[in-house]
Every structure is written in structure tokens, then in C-alpha cells.
Design brief:
Largest sheet: 6 strands, mixed
Domain DUF1618: 264-403
Distance between the termini: 62 Å
Organism: Eragrostis curvula (weeping love grass)
Structural class: mainly beta
Protein name: DUF1618 domain-containing protein
Number of helices: 4
InterPro entries: DUF1618 (IPR011676)
Pfam families: DUF1618
Shape: globular
Number of strands: 30
Radius of gyration: 23 Å
Length: 521
């Protein structure tokens, strides 16, 4: 294969990907590369061809990624392999793998981490012909998280009884210990600590899973699609939820206990039980966040996730007008949250409001500050600037309720973007890293990565040296200065202007908002 093929960005994975982390920002687009480590899992496509998936993890703000390789294909045919992550939760990742040279060929796989018990697995999941054309709004739920009351009573004496840990004295061996990496506990929030210490069943039931999606049929009527791995079957059930607006699910969040939040980040959330044991529920977003006049992808401006036991929402938007002389634009980030409980007794509350001018940049404490563009301050001193012309894609940290990440560019056509980590509690820059933006085809920004807890389910050997193939090796730039970004020759469609919403005033922590959900009987 000639060198001309090496210009394909899908063949050039970043050099990072050998570090342990408790959670990750996971790139939605896979790279085509022959890599192997302890996370690698193999499976067979519907055409009989072998496929291998390998995770390459790194702590945020670096973006982790997967490498997909089909060893049965000729090197030239590897160029036609495209894979995309569709959903992720706990130790599960759903991904699609297509071969563009084979028209209409696209398979869906469920990757399950080993959690220290054997090797990871890759299972082919067949989608129904009439499955909705959804993307990134599919939920994954472990069967162990949806044990029915009857099953709980049957197995309580066996699968939930205390069993000894390894060698040692009796007290130590029967003591409660966290699930996952014990040395990482101190880095986790309260909600995650509870999750890691809760009783979990012993035995094979841990390996099962559900795949759930919600399609809109007519006003107030949805169809809940659920795949049960135990029976290898799909079910379709109608769901009636009166919604004040047209609901377009853009993100699905596992709330625990079999509950899934199908979120429209512009307007509201439909909460469903994957086993339909409880009636569905609709919750409006905080009143000042409800928008029914937007057509942009909401996850370029907002994000929703469960953080430390609270359903948390963040909004990132530009304020004022852009500074064309300095090529900058100020921004504001604000968060709301409510505690996840069976009855949702708590209202939305506003937690933080931070503007870009409030964020401190410590040149000595933050690595890679040189990647930021510099602007001249009032005293004529050049200082790093966080107010880049293009900002989008806010993403909540899974381990810290006061931390979020976002993407920024100096120029609309930049092939490299920056991912920045911001502390909202004590407004400051925590870190920044480069991101390959040239694969975001068609837009200056696109929804590019999602949060995932999957790194904490990998074996400790995840940090071992990767097997790397030399077939498509391309040197990856290790330093990029904002003033010397290489511009692409592609034509991009710009996203619409910034979300100009009403400025939120009030205290920066704990302002209570009126409850606005409704139960569905």
C-alpha cells in the first residue's frame, strides 16, 4: 500500500492510549488499526469475517478511542472498514461495524469488559429490520441491575450471601470491599462509592444485558424497543406519555434499577422502565432551558448525565458579541441537577454559573498551556486565552459534579481542536489536550465523544505496551501551537449562531427551581 493512503485520518490513531483511568471521554468514531492489549475482544461479523476491537484509554481531557481490525480482509479493504460507538454504560459498549466496499453491510456488536474475570467478549446483536434509525440515543442496562422482586427473593440466600475474599483472617476475608479498583475509591464521588459497595449477585446473571431505545410514533405515544440478551429477542411495547412538545431523544441515560432517561436536551426527559414494571414519567427541563425553536444538535450546547447520584445538566453558550479584532468570544457555563430517586421528590436546582472571564489559568500548574492561543491584555502583556472563537460540546465529568469539558477551535476549518477541563467550583483550568477534528466531517463541530465508565472494568494490564502494526503508521504531531494550525481544504457547513438564551442570574450554588415534572398514571 502506497504512502498516499496514510493521509486517511481513520488510519492514524493518536499516540496516547496506554494509561489507566476510572472513566473516559470515548471517541465515537473508531480507528482502523491492528492493535492488541488486554482489552481486545474478537468476534465474527454476519458475513463470517473476523473482527477485533481494542480500547486505548487515557484520563480526560485526552479522548480515549477504540481500534477495529478485520484480520481476514486484505490491507486495501481495511480502508473501507468504519466503526462507530452507539452506546456505552458500565462495562458495556454497543458499536456498529460496516464495510463500505460491501453495500448495505453493517453489523452491531455488544462489547463487554472482563472486569478481571477472563477475557472481554464481543457479541453480535441483530437489529430488527424496522428498528428506528437512531444514533447515540440507545441505552444499555445490565441484567444484574434489573433483577425483579421475585428473582431477588429467590436468590437472596445464594447469590447475595457474603463470601470470603482470598487469603487472610476471617474478619478481613468477609469484610465489605468495593467493586472495581480499590485504590481508586478516594478519587470517586459519593454516588459512585455507594454504587461500588452495594450488594451484587454472584453467578452468571451478571453477564446479561438489555438494549433499549425509544421511538416517537404520534403525539404522546412512543414505542419502547428492548433487546434481552438472555432470550436473544426484541420486544416492542407502546408507551403513552403526554409531552407538551415534540420529543426527540438525543441521549439515553441509565438511571439504575432498570430505569432509563430518554433525554431531549432542548426540552425534557422521558423516564421508562425497560421491563415496564413502573409507569413512564415526563420531566421538563428547568423553565429557562426549555427551547422549542432549535434545530441544531443539542449536545453541541448541552449535556446530561448522572453524576454522584444526581441527574445533572450543563449548558454552554456564547455571551455578548464576538471580538473580531482578537478572534475571541466569551462564554458561560451553568449547571442544574436533581437527585435520582424512585419518586423524584427533589426539584431541579441550579448549582453553578461561571463565565469565561472568571476562569483562572495557572501557567505553572497546567500542562500544555502553550497550546492555547494568546491575546494581549490591557497592559499589553500576551496571555493565554480561553475565549476561542468557536466553542461547543460541553461534557460533564462522571466523577466530579463541579468539572466539565468542552471543545474549542481558533478557526472554523482547523483540523485540530482542543478539549479543555474546567473546574466550576473554583473557576480554573484543570487541563487541556488535542483532539483530531478532521474526522468531524461536514461541520466545524459534531457530537464527537461520550462519557464511559468502562476503563474501571478493565484488567490492571490495560496499561501494558500495545501491539502496533506498521502498515498504516503515520507520525502524529506531539505539539501544536494555536497560531500554526494547519487549515483543511475541505468545505464545511457552519453551525448556526450561538445559542442566545436569557442570562441566568442569582446565586452560583443551590438555587431551587420550581418542580415541573408530571407523573403518568
Amino acid at each position: 500500500m502506497g504512502d498516499e493512503k496514510s493521509t486517511d485520518p481513520f488510519l492514524r490513531p493518536p499516540p496516547h492510549g496506554e494509561a489507566e483511568t476510572s472513566w473516559a471521554l470515548l471517541d465515537l468514531l473508531a480507528y482502523t488499526a491492528d492493535r492488541e492489549n488486554s482489552t481486545s475482544a474478537c468476534g465474527k461479523m454476519s458475513n463470517g469475517k473476523d473482527v477485533r476491537v481494542t480500547f486505548c484509554t487515557a484520563p480526560p481531557p485526552l479522548v480515549s478511542y477504540i481500534c477495529v481490525w478485520c484480520p481476514d480482509l486484505e490491507p486495501a479493504d481495511q480502508l473501507s472498514v468504519r466503526s462507530r460507538i452507539e452506546a456505552a454504560d458500565s462495562d458495556l459498549v454497543l458499536l456498529s461495524v460496516s464495510i463500505r466496499s460491501v453495500r448495505g453491510h453493517c453489523d452491531c456488536f455488544l462489547y463487554k469488559a472482563n472486569g478481571g474475570k477472563g477475557t472481554p467478549s464481543l457479541r453480535l446483536v441483530e437489529l430488527p429490520d424496522d428498528f428506528p434509525n437512531t444514533r447515540y440515543d440507545i441505552a444499555l442496562v445490565a441484567r444484574s441491575d434489573v433483577v425483579s422482586l421475585r428473582q431477588q427473593s429467590e436468590v437472596a440466600g445464594k447469590r447475595f450471601r457474603l463470601r470470603p475474599h482470598g487469603e487472610g483472617d476471617a474478619v478481613e476475608r468477609f469484610g465489605l470491599r468495593p467493586h472495581g479498583e480499590g485504590d481508586a475509591l478516594e478519587r470517586l464521588g459519593e454516588g459512585d462509592a455507594v454504587e461500588r459497595f452495594r450488594l451484587r449477585p454472584h453467578g452468571e446473571a451478571d453477564s446479561g444485558f438489555y438494549v433499549a431505545a425509544l421511538s416517537h410514533e404520534t403525539d404522546g405515544v412512543f414505542k419502547l424497543w428492548v433487546f434481552d440478551s438472555e432470550g436473544d429477542q426484541w420486544t416492542r411495547k407502546p408507551v403513552h406519555v403526554p409531552c407538551p412538545f415534540y420529543h426527540h431523544t438525543r441521549k439515553a441515560i441509565n438511571l439504575g434499577g432498570g430505569l432509563v432517561a430518554f433525554a431531549d436536551p432542548w426540552q425534557g426527559i422521558v423516564v421508562c422502565d425497560v421491563l415496564c414494571r413502573r409507569p413512564p414519567r415526563y420531566m421538563l427541563l428547568p423553565p429557562e432551558l426549555v427551547r422549542n425553536d432549535r434545530c441544531d444538535h443539542p449536545l453541541l450546547f448541552r449535556d446530561i448525565a448522572v453524576v454522584e447520584g444526581r441527574l445533572t445538566l450543563i449548558r454552554l453558550w456564547n455571551i455578548g458579541e464576538p471580538d473580531t479584532d482578537r478572534n475571541c468570544w466569551s462564554w458561560e457555563a451553568s449547571t442544574w441537577s436533581r437527585k435520582v430517586t424512585p419518586l423524584w421528590e427533589e426539584d431541579w436546582r441550579q448549582d453553578y454559573v461561571v463565565q469565561s472571564g472568571d476562569v483562572e489559568v495557572d501557567m505553572d500548574a497546567v500542562d500544555n498551556v502553550g497550546l492555547l492561543p494568546e491575546v494581549e491584555d490591557v497592559d499589553g502583556v500576551m496571555k493565554p486565552c480561553l475565549e476561542m472563537r468557536y466553542t461547543a460540546h460541553p461534557t460533564l465529568s462522571l466523577s466530579d459534579s463541579h468539572v466539565f469539558h468542552f471543545m474549542a477551535k481558533v478557526g472554523r476549518l482547523d483540523k485540530k481542536a482542543l478539549v479543555l477541563s474546567i473546574d466550576l467550583k473554583k473557576p480554573r483550568l484543570l487541563g487541556l489536550a488535542r483532539f483530531d477534528a478532521e474526522r468531524m466531517l461536514g461541520h466545524p463541530f459534531s457530537y464527537a465523544y461520550m462519557q464511559s465508565w468502562i476503563p474501571r472494568y478493565f484488567n490492571p494490564g490495560v496499561g501494558e505496551t500495545l501491539k502496533r502494526s506498521g502498515k498504516f503508521h503515520v507520525t502524529y504531531p506531539r505539539k501544536l501551537h494555536a497560531r500554526s494550525i494547519v487549515m483543511g481544504d475541505e468545505m464545511y457547513m457552519p453551525i448556526s449562531g450561538a445559542v442566545q438564551e436569557k442570562h441566568v442570574t442569582g446565586s452560583s450554588k443551590g438555587a431551587e427551581l420550581k418542580d415541573n415534572f408530571m407523573d403518568v398514571d
